[in-house]
Write a structure and sequence with these properties.
Blueprint: E1 7-11, H1 16-27, E2 31-36, H2 39-49, E3 55-59, H3 65-79, E4 84-87, H4 103-131, E5 134-139, H5 152-172, E6 177-182, H6 190-202
Helix pairs in contact: 3-4, 4-5
Length: 206
């Protein structure tokens, strides 16, 4: 198995892409720590994964620095190390034309996508650099390369994630830590299923 014995920390790991990543890692022999807000859902997902002591859940808010840093610290304390960080948590937030976009909504998009990636990665890097091996995988978006109406804040945030990824890859690559971003298009998750029509209307895609 490709990930036998490898430890992965996954933000937003109980639903959508994050859960799919967790399932794939477990199938390849890895161990995972999942981070999300809802403790009840986290416990249910652990039960459904059926991975026993190869999976743990830690509750917290991706917009809170202390929660994210605590997640990384607890993952390392529990498993003894950290090999892979998947910065998956993020989202578009308030879909508004720029003229209607509040400072608060713009700040939230940055926290949700950029700061969360920055906080978790900064906390995880010392462990990876110390052993000269590690993987940071940032789940970005095609909006980090292009743009759509009413996605100004989200697009700006994902462009920032992509820029951070490129710079950090050059910064730590020679020390054995690779940093990459995945830029998917629209992925049909529960969030999209529940909010798809409203989102499409806001973006002029009906």
């Amino acid at each position: 198995m490709k990930l036998e014995g490898k430890i992965a920390a996954i933000t937003g790991g109980t639903a959508g892409m994050g859960r799919g990543i967790a399932e794939a890692f477990l199938a390849e022999g890895g161990k995972v720590a999942l981070f999300a807000r809802n403790a009840d859902k986290g416990a249910k997902v652990l039960e459904e994964l059926g991975a026993g002591d190869r999976a743990i859940f830690i509750a917290g808010d991706v917009m809170e620095q202390a929660d994210l840093e605590g997640f990384i610290d607890q993952t390392i304390a529990h498993f003894g190390t950290l090999d892979i960080l998947v910065n998956n948590a993020g989202g578009a937030g308030d879909l508004q034309p720029l003229v209607n976009l509040s400072d608060h909504a713009f700040d939230e998009a940055m926290k949700w996508n950029v700061y969360s990636t920055f906080w978790a990665t900064r906390r995880a890097l010392p462990t990876m650099l110390e052993k000269g091996d590690g993987r940071v995988i940032n789940i970005s978006s095609m909006e980090g390369k292009h743009g759509k109406p009413v996605l100004t804040a989200y697009s700006a945030a994902k462009h920032a994630v992509n820029g951070m990824t490129k710079s950090l890859a050059r910064e730590v690559g020679a020390q054995g830590v690779t940093v990459n971003a995945i830029c998917p298009g629209l992925v049909i998750t529960d969030i999209i299923r529940n909010n798809g029509p409203a989102t499409a209307k806001a973006m002029g895609m009906e």
